[in-house]
Amino acid sequence: MNGSRSASDEAAMGAAGAGAEEERLRELMRLLRKADDAQAGEHFLGEFRIPAARVPLRHHAGMATLTKAEVAVLRFLGWGRANRDIATVLAISENTVRVHLNNMCNKLELDGVRELNALAGLLFYPTT
Predict the structure, then answer these.
(1) Within 10 A of 87 (CB to CB), how many other CB atoms are there?
(2) What is the number of alpha carbons within 13 Å of residue 98 lying toward its C-beta?
């Protein structure tokens, strides 16, 4: 044997890696649901109720200053939508979406849109 793998071996290894990643995501979702249940209570962000366990304490005051439009952009960002998609859904320009993102970064004292994206995912990504 020359030590090379067959195509079926490669496919099996890829499937095993994908299965491990899927299992890791399931475990993360389970832990999020457990944290949501453990810390009873909710935090209101505009018209949205967010489990208190998902809201970092350092952002409570800043979140109270967000406008309705900023919260809408944050929600879609948390769902993984691109700026262009958010602009289309909210009937605003992409530039306006970027302005809202920058304003939220300033209000929440974040270093940039990457941190805002992570926070939005924490707040709005569904656990079911």
Answers:
(1) 19
(2) 4
Q: How does pLDDT run across 88-110, given as a tens digit for each residue?
A: 999 999 999 999 999 999 999 99
2-32 pLDDT, tens digit per residue, is 555 565 555 555 666 778 888 988 888 787 7
What sign has the CA pseudo-torsion 74, 64, 37, 34? positive
Other Cβ atoms less than 10 A from the Cβ of 101: the count is 22
Element (H, E) at 91: none
Rounded CA separation 68/15 (Å): 43
Token couple for 50:
């967010």
List Cβ<8 Å contacts ≥24 apart for 115-122. Answer: 116/74, 116/77, 117/77, 119/56, 119/59, 120/74, 120/75, 120/77, 120/78, 121/77, 121/78, 121/80, 122/54, 122/56, 122/78
Identify any residues that bridge with 93 across adjacent strands, giving them in sequence order: none
